[in-house]
Amino acid sequence: MLPLLAQIFIGWPSIIGSLLISLIGIHSNRPRYLVIGSLLSIGFAWYLTCSPLLLLDLLGYFLPFSHLLALLSLRMKKSWGYYIVGIPYVIVFLAFLLIPIIYGT
Predict the structure, then answer these.
(1) How many angstroms separate the CA atoms of 81 and 93, rounded?
(2) What are phi and psi of 77, to 5 degrees?
(3) Do 74 and 81 contact (CB within 8 A), yes or no?
(4) CA 50 to CA 72: how far, in whole Å?
(5) Cβ of 46: how many Cβ atoms within 10 Å?
(6) Are residues 67 and 24 in contact, defined by beta-carbon separation less than 8 angstroms?
(7) Cβ-based neighbour number of residue 76 at 10 Å
(8) How many C-beta neighbours within 10 Å does residue 105 have?
(9) Cα–Cα distance for residue pair 28/75, rounded to 1 Å
(10) Distance of CA 101 to the CA centre of its chain
């Protein structure tokens, strides 16, 4: 049971789920969805902090806070802050694509 929970809260369902819930919260103007998305991203952020690459390590610490920064921009009615949620996910996705190419594995 524990490996299944680890796959749900650390793996891809958590990553995609936290991003989708936060985007739905931004679109429908419901701040509590951003808090839920932030809580769901903690497992993946914890996984990233164990990375040997400094960039991914720093992103692990920034990931849950990006949801909360988007919540702050939602409260202040600033539209530029909405993109803060997606930036760490895009960087992590690109890093996972480029690491095998760079290191040749």
Answers:
(1) 20
(2) 60, 45
(3) yes
(4) 28
(5) 15
(6) no
(7) 8
(8) 6
(9) 13
(10) 23
Contact residues for 53 (Cβ-Cβ < 8 A; gap 6+): 95, 99
d(CA 3, CA 100): 26
Q: How far apart are CA 95 and CA 103, in angstroms?
A: 12
Cβ 15 vs Cβ 44: under 8 Å: yes
Residues 29-80: pLDDT tens digits?
A: 888 998 998 888 888 888 778 777 777 788 888 888 888 888 888 888 877 7
The amino acid occupying position 73 is S
Q: Please tell me the distance from the alpha carbon of residue 58 to that of residue 27, in angstroms, as a whole number.
A: 27
pTM of the model: 0.77
